[in-house]
Amino acid sequence: MLTLTPFATLILFAAMLLLIELGRRLRICRTDPDNANQPGAAAMESAIFALFGLLLAFTFSGAMARYDAHRDLIVQEANNIGTAYLRLDLLPPATQPALRQSFRDYTAVRIHRFDLPDNSPESIAAATQTARLQNEIWTHSVAATTGPGANPDATKLLLPALNDMIDITATRRNAFDMHPPTVIFVLLFALACGCALLAGFAMTGRRSWLHSIVFAASIALTLYATLDIEFPRHGLVTLTSRDQIFSDLLQTMR
Fold first, then answer.
1. Sequential DSSP letters for 159-186
2. Mean residue pLDDT across the chain
3. For the chain, what is the radius of gyration of the CA atoms?
4. Which of 182, 183, 179 is nearest to 232 (CA)?
5. Is the distance from CB of 145 to CB of 114 less than 8 angstroms?
6. CA distances in angstroms from 144 to 53, 62, 228, listed in the order given
7. N or C, which terminus of the chain has less Cβ within 10 Å?
């Protein structure tokens, strides 16, 4: 969906311009172009435009809510990793260096975990490495908390922190997979084209390219922004600025 967004937006923009012109020509072809609107037609046009505006508003609002949720989850995961890392002090000193290195490797993997396309080799390798490091950290930590020299509270403090650190990875994965059904986006594009046709049919007098271009561009760009926010990977809207939190955390682990 993301890679098709710019292309689909350009196609929509061109289609809307053509449909506006088609609607204008259909009105001209009427025997009474100045009185082409039948009783009740204006009400139906208003209803269609209102439906499109409502659907677009809810889709944009939902995309922004999910984008904000992504940003909050990044901060939450970084905090979970940082908390678990600090609680490694409860383990025997001999077991800490290897675990701290595993934490550094884990944080480095998580920095750009969701900046990659889902099915790319890099993304698959990162997911595999994440699972391997989680298992390694958990196994070694469980063994260390029961070993000699461990703080008596290590089991009660470290293991729940590790559990939170691991669980949030599934939460972030689920958040990135939560999108409106594809039919919603298809309906948005169909309604945009329908509104363009009705807008052209409502034109009287000479053709106004300025109004046509501004109308088509406004809707196309709004839909592009909505899709870009909904799928924040490599478009104009990304989450890479929030990844700095992981980079800062990694620096504190040196």
1. HHHHHHHHHHHHHHHHHHH----HHHHH
2. 87
3. 27
4. 179
5. no
6. 58, 44, 45
7. C
What's the per-residue H, E or C state across 206-245? CCCHHHHHHHHHHHHHHHHHHHHHHCCCCCCCCCHHHHHH
Decide: 197 and 23 in contact? Cβ < 8 Å: yes
> What is the tens place of the pLDDT at every residue in 120-170?
787 888 889 999 999 999 999 999 998 888 888 899 999 999 999 999 999
43 DSSP 8-state letter: H
pLDDT digits (tens, 9 = 90+) for 236-254: 777 777 778 888 899 988 7
Tokens found for residue 100: 């701290």
Question: Residue written as tokens 């196994």?
Answer: 139
CA 218 – CA 226 distance, rounded (Å): 12
| Separation CA 39–CA 50 (nearest Å) | 19
Please name which of 8, 2, 1, 19 lies closest in space to residue 216, comparing C-alpha atoms: 19
Residue 151, phi-psi category: left (phi > 0), alpha (psi -120 to 50), beta (remainder): beta
Nearest residue to 114 (alpha-carbon basis) of 225, 238, 229:
238
